[in-house]
Write a structure and sequence with these properties.
Elements lengths: L1 H10 L11 E5 L14 H10 L4 E3 L5 E3 L2 E7 L2 E6 L14 H12 L14 E8 L2 E6 L17 H5 L14 E8 L2 E6 L5 E6 L3 H9 L5 E3 L4 H8 L4 E16 L9 H10 L2 H7 L5 E3 L22 H10 L8 E8 L2 H17 L1 E8 L1 H10 L4 E6 L7 H6 L17 H12 L3 H18 L2 E14 L2 E2 L16 E2 L2
Parallel strand pairs: 1-10, 1-11, 14-15, 14-16
Antiparallel strand pairs: 2-3, 4-5, 5-7, 6-7, 8-9, 9-10, 11-17, 12-16, 12-17, 13-17, 18-19
Length: 490
Amino acid sequence: MKIIVILLSLLLTACSQSSSETIYFGLSSAPISLDPRFATDAASVRINRLLYGQLVDFDEKSLPTPQLATWENISPTHYRFYLKPEKIIFHNQQRLTTHDVKATYDFVLNPDNASPHRSALLHVKTLNIIDDKTIDFILTKPDSLFPGRLAIGILPADLIIKDHPFNKHPIGSGAFQLANWSQPNQLDIQRLKDGQMIRFTEVKDPVVRVLKLLRGELDILQGDLSPELITWLTKKDEINITKAKGTNFTYLGFNLEDPLTKQLKIRQAIAHAIDRKTIIHALMGNAARPASSILPPSHWAGHPNLPHYDYDLVKAKQLLQEAGVKAGTTIPLIYKTSTNPFRVRLATVIQHQLKEAGINVDLRTYDWGTFYGDIKAGRFQIYSLIWVGVKMPDIFRYVFHSESMPPNGANRGRWQNTQIDQLIEQAERAETLEQQAVIYHQLQAVIFEHLPYVPLWYEDHVLATNQRIENYQLAADGNYDGLHEVSLAR
């Protein structure tokens, strides 16, 4: 903490807020793709929400709610969607119709296009256009959660046919449009209702990010700040700090095809060798709470009574011996993470704790693009990541079903478990939320037992703004929707 304060004090010679009418938003990682058919990283998903309209969104209880369209359930396998009566316009001034809806989802459903979102829609049989504002989704099996699966941004049909590069030149119907993305680490969007410009700037180093906030070079920082920096910023009168309990799930992932990490006892040993409570208190300033599953207990499908893998070094060593590791020897494992300094610090502490149990961890850090590419390709033994903005329990199909291995989903550990597949499918066939919740509770208990991930914690959300910023509301899931109403102080 003292080192950080001294560094900032030396660098911060003056704080002069910018007079620019642009709002500057600091990011730890730039978005990878602005094509909602492919985007999965947090920055891309959050920015895409601003650029694209989608048929369905979610309310504060994580239940689906209309955005571009309302719907009715004509039969258990027949959903009819109605575009809202007001005229919906793409940023290229074309009108959005059901032809665009069909083209977007036809693309995602085509296996040749390798959309990572396809696995959540595999039971869509056909899309039938009734007229420009009405479209039917015909399913191969009943799915009471189906409307919530339609949260992908809608793209213009004619540009899909022309293979337009949406990843760098998005054309959506959202409240913001792309203004400029000529530099990989700097992206400008414009709010359509009043012309307000927002500039997202990647600043990987959190100390530099904070320095830029204090100097007025950035106006908003959301997340990805160490507890020391947050504590230090709370003492600055010119900075406003807002905190909120979060649901973003941090975990350790395993390659379940690797000779070592595919062994359950080794994974269990790792789970018991990590002292979560100490990490949360000492490194995170108590800005997190231990997790047992992707869904928090407060979610309608979350398991309310799952235990935690408690810190137990003796048990961890015993499990390693049961796995065939001789007493007094160690096993080598490679642990990959990003170059984000705080994530490196967390990984370094985990590395030290695992060493105490007899696991010699080779910690390797990579820039975000390289790291994320390795994880999707299965080039890892252990990695750490965060699931952000999870709303629906279909996350279990996307992450754990044997049909959801990349590029068809996010089963990055290549886990194959018949019981898990059956429970996921059974939950999807249930007719009521109450029935589904019971099955999802059972599913989470089985996942907890088999431990394809080590659940770590749910991280709180932290927002830091300077005095130029007004009316930015921190979202419960950490999205950037506060930009819809944010304004500059006059």
